[in-house]
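User: structure tokens for this one?
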Amino acid sequence: MSSAPAGRAADPGTVPPAGAGPFRLTRWFIGLAALVIVLIAVAHVWAISRFLSEQLFQREAATSRDFVQNVLLADGSYAYLERPEDASARERFKGSVLHLSHMPDVLRANVYRRDGQVLWSSNPGLIGQRFADNDELEAAERGELVVHAGRISPDERSKAEHIGLAAAVSFYVETYIPVLNPAGQVVGVIELYKAPLALTEAIERGRLQVAGMALAGALLLFLSLYGLVRRADHVMQRQHAQLLEGETLAVIGELAASVAHNIRNPLASIRSAAELSLEAPQEHAQESARDILAEVDRISQRISELLRLSSLGSASPERLALWPLLQSCVAEQQAAFQRRGQRLVLGEASEADRTAALIRGDAQLLRSMIESLLSNASEAMVGMAEGAEARIELDRTRRGCWRLRLLDRGQGIAAGQHEQVLRPFYSTKPQGLGLGLPLARRIVERLGGRIWLEPRSGGGTCVCIELPQA
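Assistant:
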């Protein structure tokens, strides 16, 4: 068993469950990039179309203002707004506003005095009325050109001013035009309510052009990025395959070196024992036979470890009660700990946790993993005069997983090796094969959990295992 540097070891990250597919870069790009590019294109179309419409509405309103102001100043009819009692000014004014009401696309025309009273209207029923809380009118009385435009909805088609309106007309423009006398003072306001067909057609053409350009630009951008991402994906897949091949060759080399090292020494001992038996068969036969059997068992154990490492996942997972499994493992390991003068303790857990601690896995693999970790803990505490105690604790995490903590009071390992000891064929023991912790890691990851190492305050190591609830 090994330890980590002071403090909690770096979180190894969430391990994907068995059977999770590889990350498909091209497929993710097609979905995500297409969505983002379409949203950006739609936003640009909306912003540019809105800007274009507002500019056209403003330009149309400015043209109407200039025309109205020039007409009223040219014949002096503006004077009627200052002097409503002047009969001649009234006649000139009526002629002028009749021209205004007959302007192209004008649906309604109202003339307001400076005090907000309707002095004249194409709808006679409005003459003499005042409209409170008219912000547009108040702004025009201050000398501002006010433009209020929008789209004519199907419900608004039934309004009196919209009856008989061509279906091609989609927008209305309501303009409040301040009327100025030669001194530049506001003497009244003229309201023109228009449904401009030419302006509607220009706006629709502009929107279609903007939408077409945005669509073409979005398609070009998507195809360009897709080509780059697809090529990058192919390059990464090829490099990944080469990396896997290199890692496989490296593992094969490590495996060959480890097997050669761990089998050559027992074979040398077997050869020596056999030679001694030949030279003095009566005197050393039994002792040499015992040595041969021990070394053969040692070779068999190494080969069994290699076979377990290569065949994990072949068993079908089943629902297991974790607490009885821990009790069984502790009971079986008690004798081995006692022979070395050590203690093995199973920590307390609530009755609810004991009953609810259910996981999915293979009972034999889990038992083998726990016993291997307990054996490591016992070996780590060999030679300690006192305090040689190992513990197993079980509790529930905030994420709903079950956490096992195997704690010992051994010497641990040097700082920086807590990740390396989880790799195959890396061992801090002189005669170790380096497969105990890697086997445990592979078993835990196949169950959708994770394993890491932590140091214990005062010396020792803690192996932490998280397993998902069944």
